[in-house]
Write a structure and sequence with these properties.
- The protein has 104 residues and is mainly α.
- It has helices spanning 3-18, 22-29, 33-40, 48-58, 62-65, 74-87, 92-103.
- It folds into two domains: 3-69, lambda repressor-like DNA-binding domains (434 Repressor (Amino-terminal Domain)), CATH 1.10.260; 73-103.
- Helix 2 packs across helix 3.
- The relative contact order is 0.14.
């Protein structure tokens, strides 16, 4: 998944966490709702000024917006999980318990 889509997904995630609609965020940033939609769908990057406004409104840090590694492709995530477990084989049972608890 490209960075534009990942950034858009992350902004959407943070917006929803804040309880804002696209329309409300657009109003607060002084953009058209379609612009927020295009950003969240990964069609457009926000300008730096608009990104600063979004970060301020969502009350997150600049780094928070770019922490979207959890939105990577499924195969990529599975490969990384397997690599982590291979490096820490003593933690496999702990990881299993956590995953099982999340799924049940």
């Amino acid at each position: 998944m490209d960075n534009k889509k990942l950034l858009g997904k992350r902004i959407k995630e943070l917006r929803k966490r804040k309880g804002l609609t696209q329309e409300k965020l657009a109003e607060l940033v002084n953009l058209e709702p379609a612009s927020i939609c295009n950003i969240e769908n990964g069609y457009n990057y926000p300008s730096f000024q608009n990104l600063e406004k979004i970060i301020s409104i969502l009350n997150v840090s600049f780094l928070d917006v770019f922490q979207y590694t959890h939105h990577r492709e499924r195969k990529e995530l599975i490969t990384e999980i397997n690599s982590m477990l291979e490096l820490s084989p003593e933690r496999i049972q702990d990881a299993y318990k956590v995953v099982k608890a999340l799924i049940e």
